[in-house]
Amino acid sequence: MNCVDFLLQEHTHRQGDFILGRNGELTYNSLIDRVNRLAIWLKQAIGQAQNVMLIMPNSHYSIVAYLAIMKSGNVVVPLNPAIELDGFNELVKRCGSNTVFASNQVVKRLNLEMTNVLSEAAIDTVIEETLVNEWSNSETQDDDLAQIIFTSGSTAKPKGVMISHRNIIANTSSIIDYLHLTQDDVIEIVLPFFYCYGLSLLHTHLKVGGQIVLNNTFIFLNSVIDDLNKYQCTGFAGVPSHFQILLRKSDTFRHSDFPHLRYVTQAGGKLHTTFIKEFCDSFPDTKFYVMYGQTEATARLSYLPPERLADKLGSLGKGIPDVELRVVDANGDDVQPGEVGEIIAKGDNIMSGYYQEPEETATTIKGGWLYTGDLAKVDEDGFIYHAARRKEIIKVGGRRVSPKEIEEVIVGIDGVIDCTIEAVTDEVLGEAIKAILVVNKRHSEITESYIKKICADKLSSYKVPQTIEFIENVKVNAAGKKVKA
């Protein structure tokens, strides 16, 4: 089944708005009509099974184009609107694409000259000139490719994660299940749609007939606060930096009342337990869902039920519905409680593979299991606790140190907005520990000596950072995820 049919077929006669926000509203009727017309045009103009680039910030246009590309039987390739020309040209070459949907700003900045370049005005023209047909389900098969999402990874060459229609349908259904989403839910979206976490919000709220509020200006924190109340948002989703900034940079947020906010979700990296506690203390009536996932899993792999935060704080939970998670040793055997192993996953949400990279695919998917590269432990109840990625472990004089343990201590200090622990070369130890801090300017007492004293009181001596650097702001990428050097 085509994933767009799965998302929209039940809403062809639905009344009311789907998109809300300061940039305008869009009803379900209008959305479905525009998607249908654009999909018809695409099928006529370029055929099917073509890779179509999409470079737009979150908007009515980007959503319509995204859905229409997949509805037409083609493959959507969402890209960061800030992509540089050389990077874009390389991906166009790899994908063999001759069609791109791009915002006016991107068209001008990159001077796009592909066969089919559709900006906002062109989309409007195509939709107006395309004859209307009744909505009918596509002939797409479950395992047909729906999208390719390029991830930066650990190398200079981005890897293209191939996501099928089955993957999207499966992950959407699982997320709706454990979040208990209904048509009454309204989500504030600050995450971009070239990022799988952002796309999962779009998919789930479309499927249940809910509403979304688009906010591309998270940097203006008051705009988020205003949205949550103005549109009576029931949900908010963020990566760690979003919660850190809201809690430690904005006194207004912590002291605001959000009577409609039923839940929040956090993924895209580990949020230190200090921040989770702060949020729950400030908003005891709002459920906090800790989640874990990867692009290779369409979005989501695990969640920690809010009612287990008290006794399982720090855990990434267990597998979401219809997803099996294990933590295994080097031989592929399940680890014993307390032992460190690698998280592996199986389910209909696991990617088809990496685009044009069969060898990389074979080392990542083995025997139907996705090998995530993330190290973790399990407890006696089967709850999983993230340790680190293999590449993050620091070896100080031969002793293995997890950066997260040190970061947890430092962000526990009132006034610290963010802390990044990284390895630096040391002639004696091999590697030494460096802490990079973002501190609220009102807390002048937080100095290098103060940080080292706190660490010395709570950590083994070899885990105390040798050097400390203070910077102005958290360094994040376009998805809001923290960027490490």
UniProtKB/TrEMBL annotation:
GO MF annotation terms: medium-chain fatty acid-CoA ligase activity
Presence of the UniProt keyword Cell inner membrane in the record: no
GO term, biological process aspect, one: fatty acid metabolic process
A Pfam family assignment: AMP-binding
Keywords on record: Ligase
Domain annotation AMP-dependent synthetase/ligase: ranges: 21-355
Highest taxon listed in the record's lineage: Bacteria
Similarity comment: family membership: Belongs to the ATP-dependent AMP-binding enzyme family.
Protein name per UniProt: AMP-binding protein
The species this protein was found in: Carboxylicivirga sediminis
